[in-house]
Design goal:
It is a single chain. The protein has 25 helices and no strands. By secondary structure, the protein is mostly helical. The chain has a domain of about 80 residues: Alpha Horseshoe (Serine Threonine Protein Phosphatase 5, Tetratricopeptide repeat), CATH 1.25.40. The protein is elongated and about 115 Å long.
Length: about 450
């Protein structure tokens, strides 16, 4: 009898600790009670709830299964089991649980509502919508059903309808977790950045310590062109959590865009120290080092970025440019050629491949690549400049003059091309003089003995 009383007292203590959010202590008390009396369904269900708070859903599933064995008609236990099966990606098992629950209790709205979420995760959006309307027939006031339906619509790119569903959820529950943030994300996808900003700020007022949300706001400000505002948000995220890799990485990206290369390097090195494989860290760090003339260090990070994603166009371009700076045009050309295969309508790799050819004295090939770049983008100034120089080098004077004038019409401030235009006649005369001298140069006669007859 004393053992049973002790178990009851431990359960009471567990409930008090649960109310105080002292999850681990509550779990210890409940485990001790269950060891004394393992046949109380509610205790196993409560254990599952505590494990959910500790973010241990796989263990919670086992507790809910045990509770369900002891109380098979308890719809709340079955529903909690199904939710955790969804959380752990076991969608087929979750679907079976909620289908069984619907057969047992045809008017139990969560049995339909949660299947909206499951079918959405499975990509079966027509079934998701069917479950939503069945749930609506039972109860029109379930915010969860609207939220799950919103996710299905968002996945299908129907952002306006998704916003409507999430707005309905907020009407029913003004503090529904993350609903305002999801509306902000849908507005952002629609291109309505100001509405997105308003909803992000509304979510921020509800959850000011959410570092991930602060980074989202920073990304939105970056998209809106407010680089200083974005940088301030990323710094705020780092202050709240110095190990927030996204904050460091994004702050480095902003500094890189502002051409503050040393600041970019410092922020990106901090991100790399936390997680070097985080998206964009190696590439952006390589670019920041490249812009500071630290070519060997840049090459190290850029090649790591390519090893991470060999078809990243930015990494291919930056690595090729780095190899050019290191005086390795043949290797650089391989990267630009790969980039052309990925982006056949991008003039930049063709121009750069032309530069590689010029550096290897393959002028006709280089001219062909630069001409291709201009065919794609007739206003590509760098290709015009390189072509003008290449035409002059190969004594194609008329084409050189025409290309210089075309480049100057686009950008009159190119003093180097103005000087080249003035000197073209002298270069032409000098080239012709060299050719005449070659014609009048005496032929060498052979001093070797004549072959025998």
């Amino acid at each position: 009898m004393n053992d049973w009383l002790d178990a009851e007292q431990r359960v009471e203590r567990a409930e008090q600790l649960f109310e105080c959010n002292r999850w681990a202590e509550a779990l210890a008390e409940l485990d001790a009670a269950i060891e004394i009396n393992p046949y109380h369904a509610a205790w196993h269900a409560n254990r599952g709830a505590i494990l959910d708070q500790l973010d241990r859903p796989a263990e919670a599933i086992e507790s809910y299964r045990r509770a369900m064995e002891l109380d098979p008609d308890n719809c709340e236990i079955r529903s909690a089991l199904g939710i955790d099966l969804v959380r752990t990606g076991r969608n087929d098992e979750a679907l079976a649980v909620f289908e069984d629950l619907a057969r047992r209790m045809p008017d139990y709205e969560p049995a339909f509502c949660h299947r909206v979420a499951i079918y959405t995760r499975m990509g079966q959006h027509e079934k998701a919508e069917e479950m939503f309307y069945l749930a609506q027939q039972i109860s029109e006031d379930c915010p969860h059903a609207y939220v799950h339906m919103g996710e299905s619509l968002y996945d299908r790119g129907e952002y306006a309808r998704a916003i409507y569903c999430w707005s309905q959820a907020l009407r029913l529950d003004p503090h529904y977790p993350h609903a305002k943030r999801r509306i902000a994300e849908a507005y952002r996808r629609q291109g309505d950045l100001e509405s997105a900003r308003q909803y992000y700020l509304a979510q921020y007022r509800d959850d000011p310590g959410n570092v991930d949300l602060i980074c989202d706001i920073g990304e939105l400000l970056l998209q809106m062109g407010d680089l200083d505002g974005a940088a301030a948000k990323f710094r705020q995220a780092i202050e709240l959590d110095p190990q927030e890799v996204r904050g460091h990485a994004s702050l480095g990206r902003v500094a890189l865009m502002q051409r503050r290369f040393r600041e970019a390097t410092a922020a990106l090195e901090a991100a790399a120290a936390i997680n070097e494989r985080y998206a964009g860290v190696r590439l952006n760090l390589g670019q920041a080092l490249l812009c500071q003339g630290r070519h060997e260090e840049a090459r190290h990070y850029l090649e790591l970025a390519l090893a991470q994603n060999g078809n990243d166009p930015q990494a291919l371009l930056a690595t090729g440019n780095c190899l050019l700076e290191l005086g390795r045009p043949r290797e650089a050309a391989e990267h630009f050629a790969r980039l052309i295969s990925l982006r056949p309508d991008d003039p930049t790799p063709r121009h750069n491949l032309g530069v590689c050819c010029f550096l290897q004295n393959r002028f006709e090939e280089g001219i062909a690549y630069c001409e291709q770049a201009l065919a794609i983008d007739p206003g590509y100034g760098m290709a015009m400049s390189k072509l003008a120089l290449a035409y002059a080098h190969t004594a194609r004077w008329a084409e050189a003059r025409a290309m210089i004038r075309r480049a100057l019409a686009r950008d009159p401030k190119q003093e180097a091309l103005r000087r080249l235009l003035k000197r073209l006649p002298w270069y032409r005369i000098r080239t012709n003089v060299r050719r005449l001298r070659a014609l009048f140069r005496p032929r060498r006669t052979s001093t070797s003995p004549a072959p025998a007859a």
